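Audit log entry. Action: structure prediction of a protein-small molecule complex. Ligand: N-(aminocarbonyl)-beta-alanine. The ligand was supplied as SMILES and no pocket hint was given, so placement is left entirely to the predictor. Protonation state taken as written. Sequence taken verbatim from the request; no trimming, no tag removal. Recorded inputs:
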Amino acid sequence: RINQERLWQSLMELAQIGATEKGGVKRLALTDLDKQGRDLVLSWGRAAGLSITIDQIGNVFMRRAGRNPALPPVMSGSHIDTQPTGGKFDGNYGVLAALEVIRTLNEHQIETEAPLEVAFWTNEEGSRFVPVMMGSGVFCGAFSLEHAYAATDTAGLSVKDELQRIGYLGEQVPGQHPVGAYFEAHIEQGPVLEDAGKVIGVVPGVLGLSWYDCTVTGMEAHAGPTPMGLRKDALQVATGIMQEVVNIGNRYPPYGRGTVGMVQVFPNSRNVIPGEVKFSMDLRNVTAELLDTMHQEILAFIEQRSRETGLRILAERVSYYPPCPFHPDCVEAVRTATAALGYSTMDVVSGAGHDAIYTARLAPSGMIFVPCKDGISHNEIEDAQPAHLAAGCNVLLHAMLASAGV
Amino acid sequence: RINQERLWQSLMELAQIGATEKGGVKRLALTDLDKQGRDLVLSWGRAAGLSITIDQIGNVFMRRAGRNPALPPVMSGSHIDTQPTGGKFDGNYGVLAALEVIRTLNEHQIETEAPLEVAFWTNEEGSRFVPVMMGSGVFCGAFSLEHAYAATDTAGLSVKDELQRIGYLGEQVPGQHPVGAYFEAHIEQGPVLEDAGKVIGVVPGVLGLSWYDCTVTGMEAHAGPTPMGLRKDALQVATGIMQEVVNIGNRYPPYGRGTVGMVQVFPNSRNVIPGEVKFSMDLRNVTAELLDTMHQEILAFIEQRSRETGLRILAERVSYYPPCPFHPDCVEAVRTATAALGYSTMDVVSGAGHDAIYTARLAPSGMIFVPCKDGISHNEIEDAQPAHLAAGCNVLLHAMLASAGV
Ligand SMILES: NC(=O)NCCC(=O)O
Ligand SMILES: NC(=O)NCCC(=O)O
């Protein structure tokens, strides 16, 4: 069994880097704070005797040798970047749970057949740079290194320059790093486990996701003298589309999701009819067919509104991954470990994307969920119980041992 | 008759201060550029022999003596601050038309019975500081000097500090400056004159206005794992209100206006359900009764939505002025001058607020409209024809002479 107190202390220590007044964390990818967080985790890895590799997109792998160096490592990890108003556990828990597994094995001097690795992936959140889950995406060939390098934040700073600046532009070619199996422990980020009173979520798979940037172009004009009938109000058309995004999410339960999270209005003056509105759209569902139906519906709605209003509306898809069922072997390993440890459990489909959906393209992958308070994450008040976090970490320990061989 | 070429040249010269790439002007109130604009107009006033007074809110009065110094001056003017993406004519035309009247009288050595004055008022646009029409509002007692001084821009800079910084914090107590009558020439800022093919709009009055800041508070949560039914999506509720603002504008034609110009979403991340949305609402109509009905309707709608959704919604009124009918004497003076000069004409109710609605509280006031291209203003492509601008200036000349006595 892992050390609950040590795991919790590490989480709290890492959470101080970028800590916010409201008890959350703001540690955006490739900022100075991200560098500080990375440095701290690296120092812990070194102290645990792990050898470090960094690849060209800044993914970090910390390796514990196995008896058989010819075997590919059993890997576990997640990310340490956060949302602008993020919490202490999202991602961070997966990395530190994997580290706690290593510390526990060191303490008990348990050797494994295959090597073990702790990984943390660059820019999982996608808040500062798109695409989301950038590091694991490049690693697994979902998109190219050049594409990721070229991404810029709102200030125009690029991923490549920022990697270099913080000293995490490594040398290894992404993907040229063998993986035998990948496990990721994570808070659920939803209310299902808590509602059902269960401790461990076995994750059969992850909802597919489509992200879009939408731009509505109307005509700026003065809010006073311009009669209602003569307006080309970009916001009035945009708000109709925003409402339809949510309607489409509602139309395909239980896994349909439709969200507008980001809006910019131009020129954003209170007595000017908006001439342009840009906003994001986020659609998700559990099968490729359902997600595609939602995709078709929002595009059809947009085309219809453009025809009806005469306004130009552009919707560009900026991210997509299909729904990802996890490998039966990994799902079974998690289920078996949970049963052996005697934790209450249920299956929980992940609504959030995780680095594991990309590693699943290269190696058998699986996930372990633990409850978070009120199902809330991507919020500074994100919270989780030490005992639940420890339970997830114990399941991770057993699943990794079963997979690596003792 | 005034000098069309001189008027146009002055407009073009002033428009170079803060000129934008797209041919517009960005000269926000009390910025360095506003100072440059003020300095230029002042230098022209001095060159025309005018004596200058500046009051404590930075309103500027440039006086040409009359035969009878005991008579209050006949005043004309407008403002020279602009929107963030504004044009060359809004406000600037009214100030330079008044100056052109003076230049013409000087040239022809015509003396008037009452003194004449050219005025420009501080922060008419309300883009940088609320309330809108600040200088004339303080001058006419619509709100206090202290209230105006305390207004801050988004960077936290105050009106008083900025007035001091640019050297336009004058000594005269606002309002302690007699006004016999006030005329303001302005581009229409709407499409009515152009559509009807008329040159001069006689303005019977101005629509009343209500401005609000609205805040919807929901709960931030992750866009993936949070089922639709468990969300408190502040944006979904806000967009419904935004649509209703426009619906209410549509419900009371022909003068009803409903506009949302400004929106801010928090935390504004594409995979976070918005926890808070702030936006402006702008309602207008031609009678106090209609405007009040619209006011009641939006408040009732907001209360209902708050009850239905359980979300907290605050709507605070930040500006209000009632519909303003102009003084019959001034309206007649404009009508008579237009007829004498033989211009095509019609009545046009002003949808935009103007400094004249505040001067109307102290002295008989009236306005003269000329067409602007496609009815567009508060936009960098705002445009107007030299001949139309000259026509409005000729009407102003004749109305002022009639009012001041020759
Ligand atoms: N786990 C997580 O927050 N992933 C970010 C990508 C997403 O929005 O699902
Ligand atoms: N004329 C003008 O643009 N006034 C600003 C106040 C308003 O929005 O009506």
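Audit: result stored. Chain B is about 35% helix and 20% strand. The longest strand of chain B covers residues 208-217.
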